[in-house]
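Thread: Modeling a multi-component assembly for a lab meeting

Hi all, long-time lurker, first post. My supervisor asked me to bring a structural picture of a complex we are working on to next week's group meeting, and I have zero experience with this. I have the sequence lines for every component (546 residues in total). Could someone generate the structure of the whole assembly? Inputs are pasted exactly as I received them:
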Amino acid sequence: MADDKVLQAIDEPPVMESEICVTDELVEVYIMGKPYTVPASLTIMKAMEYVGYKLVRGVGCREGFCGACGTVFRRRGDYKLYSGLACQTLVEDGMYLTQIPSFPAEKAVYDIRELEPTANTILSYYPELARCVSCNSCTKVCPQEIDVMDYVNEALRGDIERAAHTSFDCIMCGLCTVRCHAEMPQYLIGILARRLYAAHIAARAQDLESRVQQILDGEFDKELADIKKLSEEELKDLYKKRDIEPT
Amino acid sequence: METIPYFPGCTCKADALPFEVSAKAVMRELDIEMREWERWTCCGTVYSMTTDDLIHQLGPARNLIRVQEEGSDRVVTICSMCYSTLKLSAMMFDADEEKLQKLNDFLYDEVDYEGGIRVMHILELLRDDVGFEAVKERVVRPLEGLRVAPYYGCTLVRPTEAGIDDREEPRVMHDLLEALGAEVVDSPFKVECCGSYETVDRPEMVAEKCHRILSDAIKRGADLVVTSCPLCEFNLDDRQDVISSIAPRFPGIPVLYFTSLMAIAFDLPEEEWGLESATVDPLPVLQEKVLAPKDEGGG
Ligand code: SF4
Ligand code: SF4
Ligand code: FES
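Re: Modeling a multi-component assembly
Sure thing. I ran the full set together rather than chain by chain. Output:
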């Protein structure tokens, strides 16, 4: 269970370090220009903690969902720029690492209900959208492997539905924005497209609306009051016997 | 039915969507399917004339690569600006081996562009492939008595090497309109600039230019003006309110895409006429001159 050991090592590095060194292959990485020797089994995030960094910003879910831990890196002998989420990417020998927990971008403020789902709406908040030169640097850097250039172009031509779908997996890490030749915040454009799609284009879920109405009408009040009176055992029993939707 | 890769351009998917609707419909009637490919990007909007500014050739080049992937050696556009940007870029890469090499080095995420793609405007396709005789044969409602002034603007005919016709005396829209049975009103302002993108920052200047273009057409008795460029259409049509504020006696004149008149002459269903982008209502004059049942003499 190397992983457990590593986790403990992060809690108490001075004690566990020697043990890990024995059991794990070591690699050399550069963090902010300084070389460190770390176990190869660590993610970039764990490696940083292993060498003594206390992460306050640039960390969140540790599960690849929150987008807080965007990282760019180069490999020794390779001119290309690579990227990844620090919590999801394993260290490799000769990695030069830089964290980009946040990158400046101005977020537009709007009331989505008042907007029309058109290209002009997006352009009115982010006119720089029209400056895209199709360099595709955004797509190359995206840790979610999203076709960023494509959703940008879909938004530009007012295909809000496609822009919403193409950008759907975006975790707002902002790495695309770091690379943009046109200096636009792609991810903010993407979320505006998804919001426009959800508010104005996607079919409304009838079931949800009628259920919300039932709740507001108090149809479940009595049932809820009854459940609240049950003992823990009775609750567990009820839970086991609940209706499960066929898959 | 013959199929040709079609590059729509951003505007023809937004404000100028009716142009695309009518264009696709009339070409279908002439046995050509204009087929849009999956992942196109902005054409680049304006051709960059700075010779070492290759970054602004990436947009057009990516689209040319897509055409190559479609297995075609030509592509058709309907917007004059997209036409011009793609055309000039394709010509540049055909003529400059070194730039082509540099482009391919940079675009390592794509297959190499091999060059040799012919960029065509839909008017060329109509003239050179379909032929105006075939257009004439398809007409069921000739536009007799409708006086139409064709407006070409800049990017269809300039610069000369990328123009689809003579840069001072173009004929292509004239000939097409004649094939539709319309009476063509020729105006020396047909190739004057409408003011183009200045419309964003200087609408008065654009209105002044459009005022001159439109007034001349009106003086020569035109019922309406046709164009092939969404930006010209916007300037000539939507900016008429600014013209009216400068020149209160300006009577106004409808501005349409030429494909709308084709759709009407072909008697296609109304939803394929593409009149929705017109701000100055063309229906009264169309009603009077073309749509109302013709008096068959005596009757
Ligand atoms: S689209 Fe941009 S912000 Fe979203 S995940 Fe990709 S790189 Fe990050
Ligand atoms: S990085 Fe910016 S300019 Fe380049 S393709 Fe992406 S959005 Fe367009
Ligand atoms: S910490 Fe949330 S994605 Fe890495």
